[in-house]
Every structure is written in structure tokens, then in C-alpha cells.
């Protein structure tokens, strides 16, 4: 479980991933060595999965962000999800309950790339029964999992 100190450290890192351990320590009133040890433990436990920059794809030359719902043969849902997760265009992917088996967010440069992704990549994965694609016309919030 996370305690309040872990939550405060995570909050600061999520707001600015480049913040120094000494600055975190100053802001929350603990020694830098404590921050360093806590972050190391959060990484080892897999709570911090990675340190990365959050990119706005629209400003980086990618015109299409799509949400794709996938229906798979019941015995192949996990296998299909694993194959989809390997595709570089897939940003987020999860097995779901409800109307569809799998949901994923995909980022591509343009409609031509989206078509190639749908026909040449998804179309060749054994076990996919159908897909439903929705293109996001705008994104109002780019985020990450909050734990505080």
C-alpha cells in the first residue's frame, strides 16, 4: 500500500517528471535520501512503471487518435490482446467487460496509415471477429493514472 509520503512524491513526479529528488525533498520536508529510497522502492514494486514524457501527438505530426473496440473469439481474447499490444501504433490496450472484448487507443499519422493498420495489421490477426473504430476529433485531457 502507498502511504501519504509515497502519494506526495508520486504527485510531484506526475506534475513534473524532471523534478529533482532534492526539490521533492525540500517541498515535502524530508531528506533527499528518503525521497531517493522511496522512488527506488516504487520502481522495484512496479508502481512507477517508467519515466517518460507525455507527448501531444497532434503537435508531433500525428493527425489521428482512434479508439478501437475489438471482438474476438472467446477462446482467443488473451492471445489477440497480446498480439495487439505488440503493435507500435497501440498506445493503450485492455481486455474489457461489456459490449466488446478489447479496447485500444491507436495513434497514426493520417487516414492512410489508419487504413493500413486496420487492413494489414488487425486484418491478419487470427481470432479477431470484428472491430469498431472511432476517431477522436479532439482531446480535452491527456493524462495518466492518478493515485492520490
Index terms:
148 residues, alpha+beta, 4-stranded antiparallel sheet, 4 strands
Write the layout of secondary structure elements.
Blueprint (H helix, E strand, L loop, with lengths): L3 H12 L5 H8 L3 H13 L19 E9 L4 H9 L4 E6 L6 E7 L2 H11 L6 E8 L13
Antiparallel strand pairs: 1-3, 1-4, 2-3
Task: Tell me what you see in this structure.
With 148 residues, the chain is of the alpha+beta class. Helices cover 36% and strands 20% of the residues. It contains five helices and four strands; from the N terminus they run αααβαββαβ. The chain has a four-stranded antiparallel β-sheet. The protein is elongated. The protein starts with a helix and ends in a 13-residue tail after the last strand. The mean pLDDT is 95.
Question: What structural category arises from helix and sheet content?
Answer: alpha+beta
Q: Total number of β-strand segments?
A: 4
| Low-confidence region ranges | none
Question: Rg, please?
Answer: 19 Å
Distance between the termini: 12 Å
Strand order of the largest sheet: 2-3-1-4
Q: In DSSP terms, counting alpha (H) and pi (I) runs of 4 or more, how many helices?
A: 5
Residues in helices, as a percent range: 25-40%
Mean pLDDT comes to 95
Strand content: 15-25%
Largest sheet: 4 strands, antiparallel
Secondary-structure element string: HHHEHEEHE
Q: What does the overall shape look like?
A: elongated
